[in-house]
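note to self — DONT lose this again. spent like an hour looking for the file last time. sequence + predicted structure for the chain T wanted, 376 res
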Amino acid sequence: MKLKKVLAIAMASMMVFGLTACGGNDAAPAATDAPAEEAPAEEAPAEEEAPAEEAPAETEAEDAAAEDADAAAEAAGAGGNIGVCIYKFDDAFMTTYRNALQEILEGKGYTVTFMDGKNDQAEQNNQINNFIAQGVDALIINPVMTSAADQIIATVKDAGVPTVLINREPTAEQMSAYDKLVYVGCDARQSGTMQGELILDTENKGDINGDGKVSYIMIQGDPENVDAQYRTEFSVKALTDAGIEVEELDLQRGDWDRNKGQEIAQNDLAKFGDQIEVIFCNNDDMAIGALQAIQAAGRKVNEDIYLVGVDALDAALNEVAAGNMTGTVLNDAQGQAEGAVQAMEDLLGGKTYASGEQSIYVDYVKVTPDNVADFQ
Protein backbone atom coordinates (compact mmCIF):
# COMPACT_ATOMS: atom_id res chain seq x y z
CA MET A 1 0.00 0.00 0.00
CA LYS A 2 2.68 2.35 0.94
CA LEU A 3 4.50 1.38 -2.21
CA LYS A 4 1.51 2.30 -4.31
CA LYS A 5 1.32 5.71 -2.65
CA VAL A 6 4.95 6.36 -3.28
CA LEU A 7 4.56 5.44 -6.94
CA ALA A 8 1.48 7.63 -7.27
CA ILE A 9 3.27 10.57 -5.75
CA ALA A 10 6.21 9.97 -8.04
CA MET A 11 3.98 9.79 -11.08
CA ALA A 12 2.26 13.07 -10.11
CA SER A 13 5.58 14.78 -9.65
CA MET A 14 6.74 13.71 -13.09
CA MET A 15 3.51 15.03 -14.66
CA VAL A 16 3.98 18.43 -13.00
CA PHE A 17 7.59 18.57 -14.19
CA GLY A 18 6.51 17.69 -17.70
CA LEU A 19 3.90 20.43 -17.73
CA THR A 20 6.43 22.94 -16.51
CA ALA A 21 8.87 21.89 -19.19
CA CYS A 22 6.19 22.29 -21.88
CA GLY A 23 5.35 25.71 -20.52
CA GLY A 24 9.00 26.67 -20.87
CA ASN A 25 9.00 25.63 -24.53
CA ASP A 26 5.87 27.70 -25.27
CA ALA A 27 7.44 30.72 -23.62
CA ALA A 28 10.46 30.61 -25.90
CA PRO A 29 8.56 31.57 -29.06
CA ALA A 30 6.83 34.33 -27.12
CA ALA A 31 10.19 35.69 -26.12
CA THR A 32 11.32 35.43 -29.74
CA ASP A 33 8.17 37.20 -31.01
CA ALA A 34 8.71 40.22 -28.80
CA PRO A 35 11.64 41.55 -30.78
CA ALA A 36 9.64 40.92 -33.98
CA GLU A 37 6.88 43.17 -32.63
CA GLU A 38 9.57 45.77 -31.82
CA ALA A 39 11.04 45.57 -35.38
CA PRO A 40 9.64 48.98 -36.38
CA ALA A 41 11.63 50.51 -33.57
CA GLU A 42 14.73 48.86 -34.96
CA GLU A 43 13.96 50.29 -38.43
CA ALA A 44 13.86 53.84 -37.12
CA PRO A 45 17.64 54.21 -37.09
CA ALA A 46 17.63 53.12 -40.74
CA GLU A 47 15.24 55.98 -41.53
CA GLU A 48 17.44 58.40 -39.59
CA GLU A 49 20.48 57.23 -41.58
CA ALA A 50 18.80 57.94 -44.96
CA PRO A 51 20.07 61.55 -45.18
CA ALA A 52 23.57 60.27 -44.50
CA GLU A 53 23.17 57.92 -47.47
CA GLU A 54 22.10 60.92 -49.67
CA ALA A 55 25.16 63.00 -48.71
CA PRO A 56 27.42 61.42 -51.33
CA ALA A 57 24.85 62.30 -54.01
CA GLU A 58 24.89 65.91 -52.85
CA THR A 59 28.68 65.89 -52.91
CA GLU A 60 28.64 64.49 -56.44
CA ALA A 61 26.21 67.23 -57.51
CA GLU A 62 28.45 69.86 -55.96
CA ASP A 63 31.49 68.38 -57.68
CA ALA A 64 29.64 68.33 -61.00
CA ALA A 65 28.62 71.96 -60.54
CA ALA A 66 32.22 72.87 -59.72
CA GLU A 67 33.43 71.06 -62.83
CA ASP A 68 30.84 72.92 -64.92
CA ALA A 69 32.02 76.20 -63.41
CA ASP A 70 35.62 75.31 -64.16
CA ALA A 71 34.69 74.42 -67.74
CA ALA A 72 32.87 77.71 -68.15
CA ALA A 73 35.82 79.58 -66.70
CA GLU A 74 38.18 77.77 -69.03
CA ALA A 75 35.94 78.59 -71.99
CA ALA A 76 36.15 82.24 -70.96
CA GLY A 77 39.91 82.03 -70.90
CA ALA A 78 40.90 81.03 -67.37
CA GLY A 79 43.77 78.57 -67.35
CA GLY A 80 44.63 78.69 -71.05
CA ASN A 81 48.30 78.86 -72.06
CA ILE A 82 49.01 81.29 -74.88
CA GLY A 83 52.29 81.81 -76.72
CA VAL A 84 52.93 85.18 -78.34
CA CYS A 85 55.76 85.76 -80.83
CA ILE A 86 56.72 89.39 -81.57
CA TYR A 87 59.11 90.14 -84.42
CA LYS A 88 61.21 92.36 -82.16
CA PHE A 89 60.53 93.90 -78.76
CA ASP A 90 62.24 97.24 -79.38
CA ASP A 91 59.88 98.24 -82.20
CA ALA A 92 57.96 101.22 -80.81
CA PHE A 93 54.56 100.29 -82.25
CA MET A 94 54.84 96.60 -81.38
CA THR A 95 55.74 97.57 -77.82
CA THR A 96 52.41 99.39 -77.56
CA TYR A 97 50.66 96.43 -79.18
CA ARG A 98 52.41 93.90 -76.92
CA ASN A 99 51.47 95.79 -73.77
CA ALA A 100 47.84 95.91 -74.89
CA LEU A 101 47.83 92.16 -75.60
CA GLN A 102 49.34 91.37 -72.23
CA GLU A 103 46.81 93.46 -70.35
CA ILE A 104 43.85 91.90 -72.19
CA LEU A 105 45.04 88.28 -72.01
CA GLU A 106 46.06 88.37 -68.37
CA GLY A 107 42.86 90.21 -67.51
CA LYS A 108 40.93 87.28 -68.98
CA GLY A 109 42.85 84.75 -66.89
CA TYR A 110 45.22 83.40 -69.53
CA THR A 111 48.80 82.43 -68.83
CA VAL A 112 50.74 84.22 -71.54
CA THR A 113 54.39 84.05 -72.58
CA PHE A 114 55.92 86.61 -74.94
CA MET A 115 59.00 85.88 -77.04
CA ASP A 116 61.26 88.39 -78.77
CA GLY A 117 62.09 87.29 -82.32
CA LYS A 118 64.94 89.84 -82.40
CA ASN A 119 64.13 90.45 -86.07
CA ASP A 120 65.49 86.97 -86.85
CA GLN A 121 63.12 84.58 -88.61
CA ALA A 122 65.17 81.49 -87.68
CA GLU A 123 64.98 82.54 -84.03
CA GLN A 124 61.23 82.99 -84.26
CA ASN A 125 60.80 79.60 -85.95
CA ASN A 126 62.52 77.98 -82.96
CA GLN A 127 60.28 79.88 -80.59
CA ILE A 128 57.16 78.67 -82.40
CA ASN A 129 58.39 75.07 -82.28
CA ASN A 130 59.16 75.38 -78.56
CA PHE A 131 55.69 76.74 -77.85
CA ILE A 132 54.16 73.80 -79.73
CA ALA A 133 56.33 71.32 -77.81
CA GLN A 134 55.14 72.92 -74.57
CA GLY A 135 51.53 72.29 -75.58
CA VAL A 136 50.21 75.85 -75.73
CA ASP A 137 46.50 76.18 -76.40
CA ALA A 138 46.90 78.90 -79.04
CA LEU A 139 49.51 81.09 -80.70
CA ILE A 140 49.54 84.77 -81.63
CA ILE A 141 52.33 85.48 -84.10
CA ASN A 142 53.75 88.73 -85.46
CA PRO A 143 55.99 87.28 -88.20
CA VAL A 144 59.51 88.56 -88.63
CA MET A 145 59.16 88.10 -92.39
CA THR A 146 55.95 87.71 -94.35
CA SER A 147 57.97 85.65 -96.82
CA ALA A 148 58.19 83.00 -94.09
CA ALA A 149 54.40 82.72 -93.85
CA ASP A 150 54.25 79.37 -95.69
CA GLN A 151 56.61 77.73 -93.22
CA ILE A 152 54.88 79.25 -90.18
CA ILE A 153 51.45 78.17 -91.41
CA ALA A 154 52.62 74.64 -92.23
CA THR A 155 54.14 74.31 -88.74
CA VAL A 156 51.05 75.38 -86.81
CA LYS A 157 48.76 73.37 -89.10
CA ASP A 158 50.75 70.16 -88.55
CA ALA A 159 50.49 70.74 -84.80
CA GLY A 160 46.79 71.64 -84.98
CA VAL A 161 47.32 74.79 -82.91
CA PRO A 162 44.78 77.62 -83.41
CA THR A 163 46.79 80.62 -84.56
CA VAL A 164 46.24 84.35 -85.00
CA LEU A 165 48.68 86.28 -87.17
CA ILE A 166 49.01 89.98 -86.42
CA ASN A 167 50.45 93.14 -87.97
CA ARG A 168 52.02 91.44 -91.01
CA GLU A 169 49.54 89.87 -93.38
CA PRO A 170 50.25 86.84 -95.61
CA THR A 171 48.41 86.43 -98.89
CA ALA A 172 44.90 85.01 -98.96
CA GLU A 173 46.25 81.96 -100.78
CA GLN A 174 48.77 81.30 -98.00
CA MET A 175 46.13 81.75 -95.32
CA SER A 176 43.75 79.32 -97.00
CA ALA A 177 46.05 76.38 -96.21
CA TYR A 178 44.74 76.18 -92.61
CA ASP A 179 41.18 76.78 -91.41
CA LYS A 180 42.21 77.44 -87.78
CA LEU A 181 44.21 80.46 -88.86
CA VAL A 182 43.13 84.11 -88.95
CA TYR A 183 44.84 87.45 -89.55
CA VAL A 184 43.89 90.48 -87.48
CA GLY A 185 45.28 93.86 -88.45
CA CYS A 186 44.72 96.88 -90.59
CA ASP A 187 44.55 97.15 -94.37
CA ALA A 188 47.86 98.81 -95.19
CA ARG A 189 46.44 100.13 -98.46
CA GLN A 190 44.13 102.32 -96.39
CA SER A 191 47.03 103.75 -94.37
CA GLY A 192 48.97 104.58 -97.53
CA THR A 193 45.95 106.24 -99.08
CA MET A 194 45.45 108.33 -95.94
CA GLN A 195 49.06 109.49 -96.03
CA GLY A 196 48.51 110.74 -99.57
CA GLU A 197 45.29 112.45 -98.49
CA LEU A 198 47.17 114.28 -95.73
CA ILE A 199 49.34 115.83 -98.45
CA LEU A 200 46.31 116.57 -100.66
CA ASP A 201 44.69 118.37 -97.71
CA THR A 202 47.51 120.95 -97.57
CA GLU A 203 46.92 124.33 -99.19
CA ASN A 204 49.16 123.58 -102.18
CA LYS A 205 48.52 119.81 -102.34
CA GLY A 206 52.20 119.18 -101.69
CA ASP A 207 53.53 121.33 -104.52
CA ILE A 208 55.40 123.81 -102.33
CA ASN A 209 57.61 125.30 -105.06
CA GLY A 210 54.77 125.57 -107.56
CA ASP A 211 56.49 123.69 -110.39
CA GLY A 212 53.42 121.58 -111.07
CA LYS A 213 54.63 118.38 -109.48
CA VAL A 214 55.22 116.92 -106.02
CA SER A 215 58.82 115.83 -105.52
CA TYR A 216 59.24 113.36 -102.66
CA ILE A 217 61.49 110.85 -100.98
CA MET A 218 60.11 107.57 -99.59
CA ILE A 219 61.56 106.02 -96.45
CA GLN A 220 60.29 102.46 -96.55
CA GLY A 221 60.10 99.89 -93.78
CA ASP A 222 60.98 96.34 -94.76
CA PRO A 223 60.32 95.98 -98.51
CA GLU A 224 59.37 92.31 -97.99
CA ASN A 225 56.62 93.40 -95.62
CA VAL A 226 53.22 93.83 -97.27
CA ASP A 227 52.46 96.85 -95.06
CA ALA A 228 55.59 98.58 -96.33
CA GLN A 229 54.74 97.68 -99.89
CA TYR A 230 51.17 98.97 -99.70
CA ARG A 231 52.01 102.15 -97.79
CA THR A 232 54.69 102.96 -100.34
CA GLU A 233 52.41 102.30 -103.30
CA PHE A 234 49.13 103.77 -102.09
CA SER A 235 50.48 106.99 -100.54
CA VAL A 236 51.71 108.02 -103.99
CA LYS A 237 48.68 106.53 -105.74
CA ALA A 238 46.40 108.85 -103.76
CA LEU A 239 48.21 111.79 -105.34
CA THR A 240 48.20 110.45 -108.87
CA ASP A 241 44.54 109.41 -108.59
CA ALA A 242 43.83 113.07 -107.72
CA GLY A 243 45.60 114.17 -110.91
CA ILE A 244 48.81 115.29 -109.22
CA GLU A 245 52.08 114.76 -111.06
CA VAL A 246 54.75 113.23 -108.85
CA GLU A 247 58.51 112.82 -108.92
CA GLU A 248 60.30 110.21 -106.81
CA LEU A 249 63.71 111.55 -105.83
CA ASP A 250 64.67 108.57 -103.67
CA LEU A 251 63.27 105.39 -102.11
CA GLN A 252 65.31 103.68 -99.43
CA ARG A 253 64.81 100.94 -96.90
CA GLY A 254 64.70 102.19 -93.32
CA ASP A 255 63.64 98.94 -91.58
CA TRP A 256 61.13 100.82 -89.38
CA ASP A 257 64.09 102.25 -87.44
CA ARG A 258 64.37 105.83 -86.19
CA ASN A 259 68.12 106.08 -86.64
CA LYS A 260 67.92 104.80 -90.19
CA GLY A 261 65.13 107.26 -90.94
CA GLN A 262 67.31 110.09 -89.67
CA GLU A 263 70.30 108.92 -91.71
CA ILE A 264 68.35 108.53 -94.98
CA ALA A 265 66.66 111.91 -94.63
CA GLN A 266 69.94 113.61 -93.74
CA ASN A 267 71.70 112.21 -96.81
CA ASP A 268 68.80 113.05 -99.13
CA LEU A 269 68.43 116.58 -97.79
CA ALA A 270 72.10 117.13 -98.43
CA LYS A 271 71.80 115.67 -101.93
CA PHE A 272 68.49 117.11 -103.14
CA GLY A 273 68.07 120.18 -100.92
CA ASP A 274 64.98 122.29 -101.67
CA GLN A 275 63.84 119.88 -104.36
CA ILE A 276 62.35 117.71 -101.60
CA GLU A 277 58.79 118.82 -100.92
CA VAL A 278 57.43 115.73 -99.15
CA ILE A 279 58.96 112.99 -97.03
CA PHE A 280 56.80 109.88 -96.82
CA CYS A 281 57.70 107.48 -94.02
CA ASN A 282 56.14 104.05 -93.64
CA ASN A 283 56.00 104.49 -89.86
CA ASP A 284 56.28 107.17 -87.19
CA ASP A 285 59.60 106.05 -85.76
CA MET A 286 61.34 106.68 -89.09
CA ALA A 287 59.39 109.95 -89.44
CA ILE A 288 60.70 111.19 -86.11
CA GLY A 289 64.22 110.35 -87.27
CA ALA A 290 63.53 112.25 -90.50
CA LEU A 291 62.27 115.21 -88.45
CA GLN A 292 65.59 115.37 -86.63
CA ALA A 293 67.37 115.59 -90.00
CA ILE A 294 64.90 118.23 -91.28
CA GLN A 295 65.46 120.41 -88.24
CA ALA A 296 69.23 119.95 -88.42
CA ALA A 297 69.10 121.10 -92.07
CA GLY A 298 67.26 124.28 -91.08
CA ARG A 299 64.01 123.28 -92.82
CA LYS A 300 60.56 123.87 -91.34
CA VAL A 301 57.79 121.29 -91.61
CA ASN A 302 54.52 122.65 -93.05
CA GLU A 303 56.34 125.67 -94.44
CA ASP A 304 58.99 124.41 -96.86
CA ILE A 305 58.57 120.64 -96.51
CA TYR A 306 55.86 118.15 -95.53
CA LEU A 307 56.36 115.04 -93.36
CA VAL A 308 53.92 112.18 -92.73
CA GLY A 309 54.12 108.87 -90.89
CA VAL A 310 51.95 105.99 -89.69
CA ASP A 311 51.11 104.60 -86.23
CA ALA A 312 50.17 107.68 -84.15
CA LEU A 313 52.83 106.94 -81.55
CA ASP A 314 52.74 109.28 -78.57
CA ALA A 315 55.96 110.98 -79.72
CA ALA A 316 54.50 111.54 -83.18
CA LEU A 317 51.24 112.89 -81.78
CA ASN A 318 53.24 115.42 -79.81
CA GLU A 319 55.09 116.50 -82.96
CA VAL A 320 51.84 116.83 -84.93
CA ALA A 321 50.40 118.97 -82.14
CA ALA A 322 53.54 121.12 -82.17
CA GLY A 323 53.37 121.58 -85.93
CA ASN A 324 56.51 119.54 -86.57
CA MET A 325 54.74 116.81 -88.54
CA THR A 326 52.09 117.34 -91.21
CA GLY A 327 50.19 114.36 -89.89
CA THR A 328 50.18 110.67 -89.12
CA VAL A 329 47.76 107.77 -89.42
CA LEU A 330 46.46 106.00 -86.33
CA ASN A 331 47.39 102.32 -86.35
CA ASP A 332 45.00 101.23 -83.61
CA ALA A 333 47.10 98.92 -81.41
CA GLN A 334 44.41 98.61 -78.75
CA GLY A 335 41.68 97.80 -81.26
CA GLN A 336 43.87 95.26 -83.02
CA ALA A 337 44.87 93.61 -79.74
CA GLU A 338 41.22 93.29 -78.74
CA GLY A 339 40.38 91.86 -82.16
CA ALA A 340 43.26 89.38 -81.98
CA VAL A 341 42.17 88.05 -78.60
CA GLN A 342 38.55 87.77 -79.73
CA ALA A 343 39.60 85.86 -82.85
CA MET A 344 41.79 83.58 -80.73
CA GLU A 345 38.90 82.81 -78.40
CA ASP A 346 36.65 82.08 -81.38
CA LEU A 347 39.24 79.59 -82.66
CA LEU A 348 39.54 77.99 -79.21
CA GLY A 349 35.76 77.69 -79.19
CA GLY A 350 35.91 75.61 -82.36
CA LYS A 351 35.36 78.25 -85.02
CA THR A 352 37.05 77.71 -88.37
CA TYR A 353 37.49 80.13 -91.27
CA ALA A 354 36.78 79.54 -94.93
CA SER A 355 39.21 80.69 -97.59
CA GLY A 356 38.80 84.39 -98.31
CA GLU A 357 37.30 85.10 -94.87
CA GLN A 358 40.45 84.86 -92.78
CA SER A 359 41.38 88.55 -92.56
CA ILE A 360 39.79 90.83 -89.96
CA TYR A 361 40.57 94.51 -90.40
CA VAL A 362 40.58 97.43 -87.98
CA ASP A 363 40.26 100.85 -89.61
CA TYR A 364 43.05 103.41 -89.65
CA VAL A 365 42.31 107.05 -88.79
CA LYS A 366 43.96 110.22 -90.18
CA VAL A 367 45.50 112.40 -87.48
CA THR A 368 46.05 116.10 -88.18
CA PRO A 369 46.71 119.19 -86.06
CA ASP A 370 42.93 119.70 -86.06
CA ASN A 371 42.05 116.41 -84.33
CA VAL A 372 45.30 115.33 -82.69
CA ALA A 373 44.01 116.28 -79.23
CA ASP A 374 41.43 113.48 -79.57
CA PHE A 375 44.24 110.91 -79.55
CA GLN A 376 46.56 112.32 -76.91
